[in-house]
Amino acid sequence: MEQPRILSDRYGRLAAGRVSAAEIRARLASPRPAVARGDVATAMALMRQNELATYDAARFGPLPSTGIPYDRAAGAPGVRFKRTPAAVLVPLVARPGNQAAFDVILTMRPQQMKQHAGQVAFPGGRMEPDDASPEACALREAEEEIGLPGAAVEVLGRLDPYLTITGYEVTPVVGMIAQPVPLRPDPNEVAEVFDVPLDFLLDPANHRREQREYNGLTRAYYAVPYGQRYIWGATAGMILNLYELLKD
């Protein structure tokens, strides 16, 4: 049997985190204006700003060929569609001895998946009828995908909903894990579980705005490359939302 993976303080040598769990909770609870977030809205804004970089295929390899052109996408202007409610967990792992420093759990999807194959994602998925709330959905999905017990997660609040071009309206739920937790990823859902220092994800120097061509159309998106892992699209957009919330 595969041994459970234990999250550890592998990044303790880095600078201490800049925010505490209490501050994150307060920022998530504070009133803020509704913002249109999603792949299409992001692309439109970035193309207007003309602040895009070209995807570095030499470093990260070819992007998946699953991109949907904007003129046929669920979120494209003028296209009507049914939004599918979904939720993801943004798990913050407190580093031992420093409750103001966190790592963030992310997953790599298996290559054989029909959607989002090989992509970096937060644990999560579509809401089921038995899910009483986005929080319940996010915790259930995290337990099913990576074996993270819901009882080990302290929910801090929600980020803004994120609309994907495939029609999912995703609610990111931020949760804190105060103690080391054994994880047992489901190999059908998750190829790899890894963690990234929250300091790295919140550093604007690591945020990129990139574009790719697909069927003659330009697709623009956010990216936060981390070593040989390419964090992009909806996952990067949610990370940027967390950055915006905590930067001031």
Tally of individual helices: 6
Broad structural category: alpha+beta
Termini separation: 46 Å
Radius of gyration: 17 Å
Number of strands: 13
- What is the subunit arrangement here? single chain
**Would you identify the regions where 5 or more consecutive residues have pLDDT less than 50?**
1-17, 64-80
User: Looking at the structure, what is the overall shape?
Assistant: globular
What is the beta-strand fraction? 25-35%
What percentage of residues falls in helices of 4 or more residues? Answer: 10-25%
Could you give the order of the helices and strands? EHHEHEEEEHEEEEEHEEH
Integer average pLDDT? 77
Q: Characterize the biggest β-sheet.
A: 8 strands, mixed
Describe what is shown at a glance.
With 248 residues, this protein is of the alpha+beta class.
Please outline the helices and strands:
Elements (H helix, E strand, L loop, with lengths): L4 E2 L14 H9 L9 H11 L3 E2 L2 H4 L23 E12 L2 E11 L11 E2 L2 E3 L7 H13 L6 E6 L3 E2 L4 E10 L4 E2 L8 E6 H5 L5 E7 L2 E7 L9 H14 L2
Parallel strand pairs: 2-12, 3-9
Antiparallel strand pairs: 1-10, 3-4, 3-6, 4-5, 4-11, 7-9, 8-9, 12-13
What are the key terms here?
248 residues; alpha+beta; three-stranded mixed β-sheet; 13 strands; 23% helix; disordered N terminus
